[in-house]
Amino acid sequence: MPRYAPEPPHVHGQAGRTAVLLVNLGTPDAPTAPALRRYLGQFLWDPRVVEIPRPLWWLILKGVILNTRPKQSAEKYAAVWLPEGSPLRVYTERQAKLLKGRLGAAGHGHLLIDYAMRYGEPAIGATLDRLKAEGATRILIVPLYPQYAASTTASVFDDVADWGKRTRHLPALRFVRDYHDDARYIAALAASVREHWARTGGQPAGADYRLVMSFHGLPRRSLDLGDPYFCECQKTGRLLAEALGLDAGQYLVSFQSRFGKAEWLQPYTQPTLEQLGREGVRRVDAICPGFAADCLETLEEIAMECKAAYLSRGGGEFHYIPCLNDRPDGIAMLAGIVADHLGGWLAPQAADPQTAERAKALGAPS
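The structure corresponding to this sequence follows.
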């Protein structure tokens, strides 16, 4: 087989274009067991996600997990599936469209804006191929993970690098590492909380209120091995609390979505909420600042499962505060981050007619 993929048609001297690629984690194509089996097979086989020796993990994944978990997960996805499709894909697609519109209104309509998923469709490699075919010679990769983790952000880099290995004519590439403490990100989160408070009777006060900031969990071992994710989540939580004027007793940071029997980052979200219910905390607002868009982990795990767990232990009110999704301030934040990382790339590239003429004289194909 050829080592490199075929190159798209090229016109010598034609101006190159600049592209921005938003990347989110991924989603199954449908809330069905077969779709979940395909999706989980790709997701859980990534060595960035599960750091277990491959032969052992292959036996566990193929022999146990993919024979039991897809049906259970499909039922959960069905509970949050939107008419347009998976919430994660719907919101990520909207973010790309709105980002294009905002940057266009700012005079950058020449930029190509697209989105992809690390697992599932649209795939990163296929989307990069399409951007190249549209003339992109400079591409900014924007993983939609505010906090860096090897299992998320670095896995996107891996997939981009794999695409590069089979690409003859590489574009210039830039990569956003994280934005966990970006002032625009914190301000957008704080605005979403304040708007929620305004809709529900004003800012709560006193010892019987908690704002729970739930982040996706990782194995505890990741912190010991040097992954900065835990620390970046803690910083996001502290900055958001400061922006909201909360004292240390009114908020807490927790971690959700445990998988397997190993110790994960603590405190765990659901047991924490159950304890708050037992302690008589009368109101909990939950927000998930590690997710750029609502998905199964926010809409089903937090807004449904964790709510039920809190209420079953004697808790009072429970409110889930949605992710930034397609909020205007969230899109403005993304536009600002993109503009910062593009820098000089914001200016359109100019065509070079002399190069085209020389290539034509040499008989080069257009």
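The chain has a mean pLDDT of 95.
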